[in-house]
Amino acid sequence: MLYTAANARGATIIDVDTGERFSRVSEVSTSGGWIKVHDNPSRIDAQGRIAGRRIRFASIYAIQGLERMPCLFHCYGRRA
Questions:
Q1: Signed CA dihedral, 39, 18, 21, 32: sign only
Q2: What is the pLDDT of residues 15-35, one digit of tens each?
Q3: From CA 80, how far away is CA 46, in angstroms rounded?
């Protein structure tokens, strides 16, 4: 499933293996195993979208509390 600001605003994304917390994340794909992180400072690519990069993982789990939307994502097995 693809999560964006529309269905997971404010969620925390953590690489469980290293303990790294990611900021400036615009998309999380649990089925595809990647997150999209914006560049800092922000810049626009050739298609007019905010530029960023995908970081791939072996698995990503959406953690849902009492809320309707996920509040946390655990990422495992970062790939190069």
A1: positive
A2: 999 999 999 999 999 999 999
A3: 25
